[in-house]
Amino acid sequence: MTVRHSWRGRLLALAALVLAAFNLRTAVTSLTPLLASVGESLRFGTTVAAILGTLAPAAFAVFAVATPRIDARLGLERTTALAMLLAGIGLLVRACVAGPVGLVAASFVALAGMGIGNVVLPPLVKRYFSDRIGSASAMYITSLQLGTMLPAFVAVPMAEAFGWRVSLGAWALPALLAVLPLWPLLRRTKADGRHDALHVAPPADARVWRSPVAWSLGALMGMTSLITYAMFTWIPRWMVDAGASPARGGALLGVYSAVGLVSTFVVPVLAARMRQPFWLVAIVLVLHAIGYAGLLIAPLAFADLWAALLGLAGATFPLSLTLINLRTRSAAGSARLSGFVQSMGYLLACAGPFVVGALRDASGGWHAPVAFLAGCIVLQAAGGWYACRPRMLEDGWAPRGAH
User: Fold this and answer.
1) Arithmetic mean of pLDDT, 98-110
2) Which DSSP category does 202 fall into?
3) Measuring CA to CA, which residue among 133, 132, 172, 126 is closest to residue 151?
4) Fewest beta carbons within 10 Å, which of 72, 241, 280, 297?
5) CA distance 330 to 3
6) How many domains is the chain built from?
7) What span, in angstroms and rounded, lies between the C-alpha atoms of 83 and 137?
8) Residue 203: inside a domain, yes or no?
9) How many whole angstroms separate alpha carbon 97 and alpha carbon 387?
10) Taking Cα atoms as reference points, which of 129, 187, 119 lies closest to residue 3?
């Protein structure tokens, strides 16, 4: 069933999408640059730091599983508002804690909200922008990337000027502001009864995990997340091992992150216009091959180029998020597929930094980690091949023999 929304409703929904997306990583990247000073102040060491490092993908995976049920009970708009409230409250409390236990607990609350937001934004696009999936996806994924980068750049200067508590707590404000455009959407949805019309439940025997669409898209996003988290963790060390300074390694990580903004804005629009967007995955394969070969053969000669190519190879992340909507017929289907795909993605992401680090320590170099990542890229390509085929999740929910 297609429901038309007024331009005011769509404008509010777009504002909600962009603002909410901006807040989906701030709990992570606002804390990481300050771990040393926060640890000194709250008296914790590497164990708590390691817990905080793995808390994000773990919380994202857990709440990716739980969110479709929350959404089915509350509706998309209320679930999005809940996500932003949890994120804002968790970030605010985290800035006031007196010890490491409180820091971990408050971080978990904030990350719970962000994990819910990860899942609920694709179906929100499906509901309000089913005719503009590519452009709407590009806008919110770009906002997500900006919200990932900005806290990392300003965390230390803010802490030096105002203290680490202000630097951490300031990110509660944009999370709470994201609730504002959702409030009139909640009132509109309740007044015109659109919730029930738009959020039709799937059949009782529908199981997302039985769908080839879900598994192929989960493999695509899972391998993408694993590779990305591994590179975020180990690019600086890789460069230092090659003879670069720590500052140079950090700068190359910045190049890797910044170049990804290009793909977040371009890839969703291209994918939405194509019946079979696998050629985007094929380009990613080539970028990975050149980037890793360059880092192994001549890591310092063209370091910025290798980092930029690998950053562009992260294009399968926005492609995965866009395919969640392109391979579903309804907001309900999008919510279920989003939950499955993102839980699989973030569970696999937890393994990336650990496995790459273990292989590097065991082998004493980077050839073994690259061999492991090459295997992940093959799985990524296989998942992309099947995920890009033009078929819909809900088609597998029809009774046997139905068309």
Assistant:
1) 95
2) P
3) 172
4) 297
5) 11
6) 2
7) 19
8) no
9) 44
10) 129
Q: Which residue has the tokens 């819909």?
A: 392
Please report, as a single letter, which amino acid is at residue 333. G
pLDDT digits (tens, 9 = 90+) for 389-402: 988 888 876 544 44
DSSP assignments along 329-353, one per residue: SSHHHHHHHHHHHHHHHHHHHHHHH
Q: Write out the two tokens for 89.
A: 């409250």
* pLDDT at res. 203: 55
Start-to-end Cα distance in the chain: 17
Token code pair at residue 151? 């806290």
Burial of residue 3 (number of CB atoms within 10 Å: 0-12, 13-18, 19+): exposed
| 52 contacts 31 by C-beta, under 8 angstroms | yes
Please indicate, yes or no, whether residues 220 and 107 belong to a single structural domain of this protein.
Answer: no
H/E element holding 122? helix 100-128
In angstroms, the CA 286 to CA 36 distance is 38
* H-type alpha helices, 209-245: 212-241
What's the distance, CA 116 to chain centroid?
A: 11
What's the confidence (pLDDT) of residue 130? 87
CB 116, CB 63: distance < 8 Å: yes
Residues 159 and 48 in one domain: yes
Measured CA to CA, the distance from residue 310 to residue 89 in angstroms comes to 35
What is the C-alpha separation between 369 and 111, in angstroms, rounded? 29
Q: Of the ranges 45-59, 151-165, 282-296, which is most confident?
A: 282-296
Give the separation between CA 305 and CA 284, rounded to whole angstroms.
15
Range of the structural domain that residue 14 is part of: 8-198
Asked if the structure places residue 402 within a domain, the reply is: no
d(CA 291, CA 304): 10
Which CATH number is 230's domain given? 1.20.1250.20
**For the ranges 45-59, 118-132, 368-382, which has the lowest average pLDDT?**
45-59
Question: Per-residue b/e over 178-199, b at no fewer than 16 CB within 10 Å?
Answer: bbebbeebbebbeeeebbeebb
Report the distance separating Cα 276 and Cα 260, nearest Å.
Answer: 22
Tokens of 393: 């999740």
